[in-house]
Specification:
By secondary structure, the chain is an alpha+beta fold. The protein has one domain: Heat Shock Protein 90, CATH 3.30.565.10. The chain has helices spanning about 15-30, 35-55, 100-110, and strands at about 5-10, 60-70, 75-80, 110-115, 120-130. It has a 5-stranded antiparallel sheet, with helices on one face. Helix 1 (about 15-30) packs antiparallel against helix 2 (about 35-55) and helix 2 runs antiparallel to helix 3 (about 100-110). The radius of gyration is 15 Å and the shape is globular. The relative contact order is 0.26.
Length: about 150
């Protein structure tokens, strides 16, 4: 993976919009094809919304969103303080008002999964990320963005 970004955000629904904007801006600056960037932003929205709804925050009442850009893929990850259950697809009924988030992630991503450790869990997904012809992918760059001065 080449270009990376990390954002540490408050444990709040409003953080979803902030994460979406930061990821979209980074992918646009890296020259990622617009449709691929929209897919990555959608997946981050689903993972972050699920974490805020179903899991516990990281220390400091925060949540971390990270992304790494490779030659033809982007990995996005949302880290939280863990939950009583592991994220899993639910196969929501046609009339259900929710429960489709991980089905969307499964459809859009090449693959996705969950990593757990002593500090919590990270739900990650890998998506195709073709560069536009006008903006070849940078050979190396790294940026870390935090919403405040706390470290993950």
């Amino acid at each position: 993976m080449k270009a990376t970004g990390t954002v540490l955000l408050p444990w709040a629904p409003a953080s979803v919009a902030v994460a979406r904007q930061r990821l979209a801006a980074d992918l646009s600056a890296a020259g990622i094809f617009e449709a691929a960037a929209r897919d990555a932003v959608l997946v981050v929205s689903e993972l972050l919304s699920n974490a805020i709804r179903h899991a516990r925050p990281l220390p400091g009442a925060s949540i971390q969103v990270a992304w790494a850009l490779g030659d033809d893929a982007i990995e996005v990850a949302v880290s939280d303080g863990g939950a009583a259950t592991t994220p899993a697809r639910t196969h929501a009924s046609v009339s259900a008002l929710g429960g489709r988030g991980l089905d969307i992630v499964e459809y859009v991503a090449r693959r996705w999964g969950v990593r757990s450790d002593d500090s919590g869990q990270t739900v990650w997904a890998v998506l195709a990320a073709p560069a536009t012809e006008q903006h070849p992918r940078p050979t190396s760059s790294s940026a870390v963005v935090t919403a405040d001065s706390r470290q993950a």
